[in-house]
Amino acid sequence: MYDYHPLAIPAPYNHSNIDSDEVLYYVDGDFMSRKHVERGMITLHPGGIPHGPHPGTVEKSIGATETRELAVMVDTFRPLLMTEYAAGIEDPDYYKSWLG
Asked: What is the average pLDDT score of the chain?
């Protein structure tokens, strides 16, 4: 269940984690706040970089009461370092997923 208040907007808001990196591992389901996300994908939003739901997902979430998704989110206490392997599988067009 998303929220108990009938006027709540389920989609996360745009934000910037100034003191932590944010990593999401998408395990399974239909991911409400991101378009074109598939099972097994990982996203990294470094500290200080603004991020949030993709365009249109806030509006789409209004009135939704539950989700059928499973994801693991980790906010780190120290900055993460990219390995060569991780850099090799990076989607260089990820930032474009916020364009309308």
From this structure: 87
Contacts of 34 (CB under 8 A, 6+ apart): 26, 43, 53, 54, 57, 97
CA separation (Å) from 75 to 6, 34, 37, 92? 28, 18, 20, 23
How is residue 85 written in tokens?
């392997």
Q: Which amino acid is at 40?
A: G
Task: Quote the pTM value.
Answer: 0.78
Residue 86, helix vs strand vs coil: helix
Q: Which amino acid is at 99?
A: L
**Level-2 CATH architecture, domain 1-79:** Sandwich (2.60)
Show me where the domains of the chain are located. Answer: 1-79
In a 3-state reduction of DSSP, which class is residue 85?
A: helix
What is the model's pLDDT at position 12?
A: 81
